[in-house]
Amino acid sequence: MEKIRLQKYMALCGVASRRECEKIISEGRVIVNGIKVTEQGLSIDPGRDKILVNGKSLSEPEKFTYIMFNKPAGVVTTSKDQFGRKCVSDYFSHLQERVYPVGRLDYDTEGLLVMTNDGEFTYKLTHPAHEIGKTYIVKTDGEPSDDDIEKLRNGIDIDGDGRLTSKAYVERLTKNSLKIIIHEGRNRQIRKMCQCIGYPVIKLKRTAIGKLNLDVKKGEWRYLEKADINKIF
């Protein structure tokens, strides 16, 4: 392998997303050839340089695995939970490869979650610059008016800091259910958007990422193929 930027190589090795790898470097948790590295952009030679992350040698890049998972409600999108709740990692503990969720779905949200060990893929999928649409079916407590729906489309200050959400696609499906497509990943964004117009979410399900549509039953998963990955981007 030719010289490559440290954070990119860490991501290729499955340490974390490239953005998270940059954070790990800045925190001084990476040592290259016995020297602590905190600056971004260092180029390394994987065949010659010795790299330690959190005191452990960096392994060669893994065989990448990509999975579509239909996360049930009542499951935490983490590897471990301090309260003993079921985690998404519990569904994949039998796999030889260790896979991680790309982004998050909150505890009460169900639907499409992508799992992988490819940090570079995670970076591309979660970075706002790529504007990958995420489709949700939302059931609200009550019937939003046309004016309420227009507010969702045009942007709402969901955190009280003056930042409006980006423009969203919103379609009414029934009196109290909506199809919403967003290109952001702010914390609990859909729930906060609906709360702001006075109609709290009763049920929330993610059904697509890009043009990749959820096609497995709740609690089940399947491997993604190259054609599936192309649908996302």
Describe the 3D structure:
- By secondary structure, the protein is α+β, with helices and mostly antiparallel strands.
- It contains six helices and 15 strands.
- The radius of gyration is 20 Å and the shape is elongated.
- The two termini are 26 Å apart.
In short:
The chain has about 230 residues and is an alpha+beta fold.
How are the SSEs ordered, and which strands pair?
Elements: E1 4-5, H1 6-12, H2 18-26, E2 30-32, E3 35-37, E4 43-44, E5 51-53, E6 56-57, E7 66-71, E8 100-101, E9 110-116, H3 119-126, E10 134-140, H4 146-154, E11 169-174, E12 177-182, H5 189-196, E13 201-209, E14 212-213, E15 221-223, H6 226-232
Parallel strand pairs: 9-13
Antiparallel strand pairs: 1-4, 2-3, 2-5, 5-6, 7-9, 7-15, 8-9, 10-12, 10-13, 11-12, 13-14
Helix pairs in contact: 1-2
Could you give the order of the helices and strands? EHHEEEEEEEEHEHEEHEEEH
**Based on helices, strands and strand pairing, what is the structural class?**
alpha+beta
What form results from the Cα inertia axes? elongated
Any idea what the radius of gyration is?
20 Å
Strand content: 25-35%
What's the overall average pLDDT, rounded?
A: 92
List keywords for this structure.
21% helix; 15 strands; four-stranded antiparallel beta sheet; alpha+beta
